[in-house]
Amino acid sequence: MSITIQDVEHVAGLARLTLTEEEKEQFTGQLNAILKYAEQLNKLNTDDVEPTSHTMPLVNVLREDVEKESLPVSKVLLNAPDEEDGQIKVPAVLE
Hints:
Heterotrimer of A, B and C subunits. Keywords: ATP-binding, Ligase, Nucleotide-binding, Protein biosynthesis. Helices cover about 35% and strands about 5% of the residues. With about 100 residues, the chain is mainly alpha-helical. It has a domain at about 5-45: Histone, subunit A (Orthogonal Bundle), CATH 1.10.20. The longest helix has 19 residues, at about 20-40. The two termini are about 55 Å apart. The relative contact order is 0.08.
C-alpha cells in the first residue's frame, strides 16, 4: 500500500489544512516511508506470540474499602471558608 498526493489532499481537506504543493510532496514521501517501515512487522513470525491487550500484566492497585468513623461536623467546619446552619457555604454557580 502506498500513499498518493490525492490521499494527502483528502486528509488535509478533512483536517481543514491548506498545504502547498511542496508540503503535499513532502508529506506523501514521509507517510510512504512510515508505511514501508511498518511493513517490516509483517515479516516477523508471530505464530507463538499470545495476543494481549497490554504489554505488561495489569493488577488492581486499589485497596479494600475499610469502614471507619467520619469526622465530626464541628471539626470539618473549621476548614470551611464560610458556613451556614451547620453546612459549608459556597458561592452560587447557577444564576
